[in-house]
């Protein structure tokens, strides 16, 4: 009798171990992309040790649409087959191709990095998914840069013409590309042309007192060849004659932007992990309200600051994280 009880207990424990909690992460970009790498790391570091993770990527910054959309279809089929406990959707491309396809599957969905609006994606109250809307702090960044830099010239906000940036700019400024933020004139340029990016960088000092970069990962040469993100930032850092600031923390480094009031992928991942824990504890997704990015952070590279002659006020310096 005792032996049968022990055997039953062992079988039960084996079944429980076989049913480990599974989190399926779908990234819009690629594992090496710092944004993806940082939020995935945050989710894993802020989850229980017993969780099993499956990670898939669309690689939509490198592949043409028809190829990454095919990858999305394959991922949808895998999710339906594996039936994970929760699916995490990273950024708009994964949401529109994977998230929308599985939203009626009954599997809880948590998103982050979404630049579009709830209205745009039909994610109102009672939605089968919830998460974090990524909202770079453009206006706060402009106000910060206008205080750090000298002169009365405008500021240029330069970014690629990706889905991320289109949604980000439209959310704040609609179709305006020349705006005024608390007395500072600002021009906004979205482009996927490497040639136009270089032209804007090379001539920035003639019209602007500073440049703030958004994302720069969908730039291409006239022949269609990719202009890599490393090449884009290297060109900007070496060709610019005015200070270079950033909207995202991954753009701050000694050989990139000097710094700024930035959004952090790791912090976005931490916020998403809190929602994931609620969902896995049994809280219905439909009862968890979505939210925007909570707060930005001052991050600066001391070496890049020296290059551009940037000085921060004692208050901002005390709130800043400095990279060596």
TrEMBL record:
Keywords: Signal. Residues 1-20 form the signal peptide. InterPro entries: ABC_transpt-TYRBP-like. Coiled coil: none annotated. It comes from the Bacteria. This is ABC-type uncharacterized transport system substrate-binding protein. It comes from Reinekea marinisedimentorum.
